[in-house]
């Protein structure tokens, strides 16, 4: 895709499956390198190059990374639950989507592949939530989904009423990067974009922290509010719009916020906006 999101008029389709599929396919090229302090053999392992979906979480690819590096950390007895990642010495929060981590850490250079350090010891639990296993990631994802669905719908009945099979497909589709499996369940959770009560938004600045906002999609006259309207209200017109990204792309400031929420939100249904 290009470096910007094409503007959608308020008269156009609010639901665009082609855009959603393109967003789902977006990846970050990463060069994983085992940190020198974690090497317990005489030989140094080769880096591991992977294309990682922007929407996933680092622990969901830990098995592949562990398999590549574990034989070089044998004396340390490194396990997946002790694995953590850094970029230039800064620990990476596993509970943020990979794409957001990349955007924050490469806000000026946009370097690719992105170099990420791999560690099997000295877990920085004062900075990063501990991730014991896949269920930790699943619980985090589902809790975020419950919150966003409540904001959009005004209640969680759609999520609570999913069948056991649908609930399993929702998580496994996300975990396994299976768009069709995930979306056939996710579309049951939200109303049509034109019926959103509010829009759940998480805004990241230049650090690994965010401000969560509940945004009204329409003004008092019933007109769609744009992302420019929302950012002007939140930041008093002090945002440089060429430094705003959604899914790594620069949206036109007259794009309706409801269109962005319906088509380029994260699978947890939050709209992630990076403002440099």
TrEMBL record:
Location(s) in or outside the cell: Preautophagosomal structure membrane
Q: How does it sit in the membrane?
A: Peripheral membrane protein
Enumerate the InterPro entries for this protein. Answer: Atg5, ATG5_HBR, Atg5_HR, ATG5_UblA, Atg5_UblA_dom_sf, ATG5_UblB
Q: Name one GO cellular component term.
A: Atg12-Atg5-Atg16 complex
Question: Which residue range or ranges hold the Autophagy protein ATG5 UblA domain?
Answer: 23-120
Q: Which Pfam families match?
A: ATG5_HBR, ATG5_UblA, ATG5_UblB
Q: What keywords sit in the KW lines?
A: Autophagy, Isopeptide bond, Membrane, Ubl conjugation
Set out the biological process GO terms recorded for this chain's protein. Answer: autophagy of mitochondrion; cellular response to nitrogen starvation; piecemeal microautophagy of the nucleus
Q: Where's the Autophagy protein ATG5 alpha-helical bundle region domain?
A: 134-191
Q: Name one GO molecular function term.
A: Atg8-family ligase activity
Q: Which domain of life is it from?
A: Eukaryota
Instruction: Tell me where in this chain the Autophagy protein ATG5 UblB domain is found.
Output: 198-275
| Gene3D superfamilies in alphabetical order | 3.10.20.620, Autophagy protein Apg5, helix rich domain, Phosphatidylinositol 3-kinase Catalytic Subunit, Chain A, domain 1
Family, per entry? Belongs to the ATG5 family.
The function of this protein is: Involved in autophagic vesicle formation.
> How is this protein organized at the quaternary level?
Conjugated with ATG12.
Q: What is this protein called?
A: Autophagy protein 5
């Amino acid at each position: 895709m290009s470096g910007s999101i094409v503007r959608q008029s308020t008269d156009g389709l609010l639901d665009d499956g082609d855009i959603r599929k393109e967003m789902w396919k977006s990846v970050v090229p990463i060069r994983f390198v085992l940190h020198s302090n974690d090497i317990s053999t005489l030989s140094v392992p080769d880096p591991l190059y992977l294309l990682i979906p922007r929407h996933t979480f680092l622990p969901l690819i830990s098995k592949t990374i562990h398999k590549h590096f574990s034989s070089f950390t044998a004396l340390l007895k490194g396990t997946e639950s002790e694995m953590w990642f850094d970029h230039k010495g800064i620990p990476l929060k596993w509970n943020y989507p990979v794409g957001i981590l990349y955007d924050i850490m490469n806000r000026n250079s946009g370097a690719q592949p992105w170099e990420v350090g791999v560690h099997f010891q000295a877990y920085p639990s004062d900075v990063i939530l501990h991730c014991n296993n896949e269920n930790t990631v699943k619980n985090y994802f589902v809790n975020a989904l419950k919150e966003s669905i409540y904001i959009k719908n005004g209640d969680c009945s759609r999520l609570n009423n999913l069948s056991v099979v649908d609930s399993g497909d929702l998580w496994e589709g996300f975990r396994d990067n299976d768009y069709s499996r995930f979306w056939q369940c996710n579309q049951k959770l939200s109303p049509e974009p034109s019926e959103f009560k509010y829009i759940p938004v998480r805004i990241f600045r230049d650090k690994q922290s965010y401000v969560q906002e509940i945004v009204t999609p329409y003004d008092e006259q019933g007109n769609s509010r744009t992302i420019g309207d929302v950012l002007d209200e939140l930041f008093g017109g002090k945002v440089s719009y060429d430094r705003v990204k959604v899914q790594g792309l620069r949206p036109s400031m007259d794009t309706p916020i409801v269109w962005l929420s319906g088509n380029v939100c994260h699978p947890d249904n939050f709209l992630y906006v990076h403002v440099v």
